[in-house]
Amino acid sequence: MAAPGVTIKKQLLKLSNYVPTWVEGLGRNPRGVVFAPGAKTSFFLHPRASRRPLLVGRGHGRYFVGTVTDHLGSQQAIQANLDGVVDVLKNAGIEHFVYGTAAGQHPVVGCLAKDRVAVVSELVKTHGHSGAYVAVVSGTGIRARRYLKRSAPSVLTKASVLRFFKPQVSPTGILLSDDRAGCDIEFWRSSAGVWTSPVANPYATQLSEGDRQRADVHIGTGTYDSYSAFVQPDPFATNYPIDVVYTWVDGNDPAWQSRKRGALGQNEGTELNPLAANESRFSSRDELKIGFATSI
């Protein structure tokens, strides 16, 4: 029978492909490992980390080191990540502003490109070894993820958009939130007094000096510093009740098929989207049942 220390080292080696490099060092210090009852993975508490235990969580085929929590909603995770960035910038005296995205998925914190290294350095200083990640965001999605340790990887100090997130993990090792609940950090370029965004947004991609009038923006339960351009009503936001109307047909009904052909005949000369009237659209796939379930 293998000694407990050997077994722990084997488990750490197996997980080393998924977790930060400091986990490997715990094999030399078994006292840094606390096993969670009923969990398939282990708690790893780094001496520099907060007193809250960290757990390697798994979800959607991915592994992250995260803070252990019993209950967490998606909006709570988004808010916590946003506050994690804003608090750091406020304490460091780094100029910034906040706005919400059209889809409401990722709050955005805007900073000047000249402060990029300072922003990353302060995030590392505050959140290093505490279960926090910073990822590089590109047009195709997340390009690189880096666990925050003692220093800032160079890939983070060159990016135009970063995403900060602290994964949350259940006591049994289930990943509750990941980069999808993160907070984006945009680095705006400044030229001739005009700030230019590195990516498009629903409000303003350029801010002149006259546009930079301070205003408060409300996101979730928090109030944040922003500019007036970002507190305008979002034309894509739905902040009113919507009536959902279902129509249901039997695509195999001969009488209905005849009416369909007649209706299409009346629209001759009018170009239809190829998906608008194809046969598969009227095949039964339990859409009504699924639609009701998701709209309640």
General description of the model:
This protein is of the alpha+beta class. It has three domains: 4-68, no CATH class; 74-166 and 178-230, no CATH class; 254-295, no CATH class. It is 23% helix and 26% strand. The chain is built from six helices and 16 strands. The chain has helices at 4-15, 22-25, 74-92, 116-127, 254-266, 287-295, and strands spanning 33-35, 42-44, 54-59, 62-68, 97-99, 108-112, 133-138, 141-147, 161-165, 168-169, 175-177, 183-191, 194-196, 206-207, 214-219, 222-227. Strands 5, 6, 7, 8, 9, 12, 13 and 14 form an eight-stranded mixed sheet that branches. A hairpin with a 2-residue loop joins strand 3 (54-59) and strand 4. The longest helix has 19 residues, at 74-92. Residues 12-51 have low confidence and may be disordered.
Task: Give the secondary structure arrangement, pairings included.
Layout: H1 4-15, H2 22-25, E1 33-35, E2 42-44, E3 54-59, E4 62-68, H3 74-92, E5 97-99, E6 108-112, H4 116-127, E7 133-138, E8 141-147, E9 161-165, E10 168-169, E11 175-177, E12 183-191, E13 194-196, E14 206-207, E15 214-219, E16 222-227, H5 254-266, H6 287-295
Parallel strand pairs: 4-10, 6-12
Antiparallel strand pairs: 1-2, 3-4, 5-6, 7-8, 7-9, 9-12, 10-11, 12-13, 13-14, 15-16
